[in-house]
Design brief:
The chain is mainly alpha-helical. The protein is built from five helices and two strands. The chain has a two-stranded parallel ribbon with strand order 1-2. Strand 1, helix 4 and strand 2 form a beta-alpha-beta unit. The mean pLDDT is 90.
Length: 124
């Protein structure tokens, strides 16, 4: 969900790429339905494994597992931990709660990144 939200709401400051430690290999139907219900596209989403190359190429890694994963992220300095309930195999309300939490966090991050961009341009 985070990738779809960032693609639509924050493409000016975020180049999102989503991957997981234990990917399903498909996007859950309820994930697609939740995104569509909220006006987002799920068309190009994939379920990919998190690789060392992906971590190494990222400016910022968002960990949404709720656990500090020192092993997976030990060599990456820019890891932000967001606890988001995993809605997999839950009811639509749980998916909606997860969507709203992710949307709020992505939008907060985008605001911060836009402010950082402005500050760097003005020298503040």
């Amino acid at each position: 969900m985070a990738e779809a939200i960032a693609q639509r709401d924050a493409a000016d400051v975020i180049e999102p790429s989503s991957a997981g430690l234990y990917p399903l290999g498909y996007i859950a139907e309820q994930t697609k339905q939740t995104l569509i219900k909220n006006g987002y596209s799920a068309d190009r989403l994939t379920s990919d494994a998190l690789t060392p190359e992906a971590i190494g190429g990222a400016d910022l890694v968002i960990n949404m597992t709720g656990r500090m994963l020192r092993e997976a992220f030990r060599n990456h300095q820019k890891v932000e931990n967001w606890w988001v309930e995993d809605p997999f195999d839950s009811d639509p309300e749980t998916y909606q709660r997860a969507f709203e939490k992710i949307q709020g966090r992505v939008n907060q991050l985008a605001v911060w990144l836009r402010e950082e961009r402005r500050s760097s341009k003005t020298g503040r």
